[in-house]
Amino acid sequence: MAYRRKTRAWSLALCASTILAFSASGAQAADQFKQAADGASIECAVSARELTRFALIDDQFASVSKISTGTPYNDFAVTNEPLRGDIYVSVPETYSARSISFFATTKKGFVYKVSCQVEPVPAVQVFITNPAIATNKASGWESETPLETSAVRLIQAMANDQTVDGFEVRQSSALPARVGDLEIQLIADYRGSALAGKVIRLANRGRKPLTLAEADLASSQTLAISIAQPTLKSGESTVAFIVGSNGGLGHD
């Protein structure tokens, strides 16, 4: 393992940096996943006949503010579940409007405006995440030690396939790239507040043994790097772990 050093980068480091982008695709499902900042408007669909559950990730609903029509047959109801901090919305069959709206305040002090269309769908769930919460958790984990030490800790976590509090982890579908006899492929991306980590697969596609140096994969943004097996025989592969500043390592 080595910290960032001022070395001349060659084509291998350039190739590694260009493939450090990830793509993600989500499957269509009945559950709805929304991301929102404080004060943001959340658009969704609620069930016209059954319950709709709203759940906050790493937070809880504290209160809901809505306008009442004064007529129960033409008004939707919001029920707070105190144990988990979720809310449940029910819309009566006699409800004439095509949408509902309300303001929700969370226990961590965020406020969201919820605007949803009433749809003839079965019971659904709406999960809401706020990136600021994860960023604060990641920042706390990173600040436990000096930044370069935290970079080493992140490499250790990635090498042991561990989750890191507040870090977003995404598996990559990026295709491998070639630099001479070396094949390079991004496997996973860890992204926190100040730090970003990459897990890269390296394979020797040549006929002769290949020796890799940590400086070969490092760029000016690299804080720490580790190659599990620096010397590869023909056909062998290994894994490298690279940590740099968040935003310094390429991403979508």
TrEMBL record:
Q: Which UniProt keywords apply?
A: Signal
Q: Write out the transmembrane intervals.
A: none
Q: What residue stretches are annotated with the TraK C-terminal domain?
A: 141-243
Q: Which InterPro entries match?
A: TraK_C (IPR055397), TraK_N (IPR010563)
What Pfam families does the record tag this protein with? TraK_C, TraK_N
The TraK N-terminal domain sits at 35-136
User: Which positions make up the signal peptide?
Assistant: 1-29
The domain of life is Bacteria
Q: Please give the name of this protein.
A: Conjugal transfer protein TraK
**Species name:** Sphingopyxis granuli
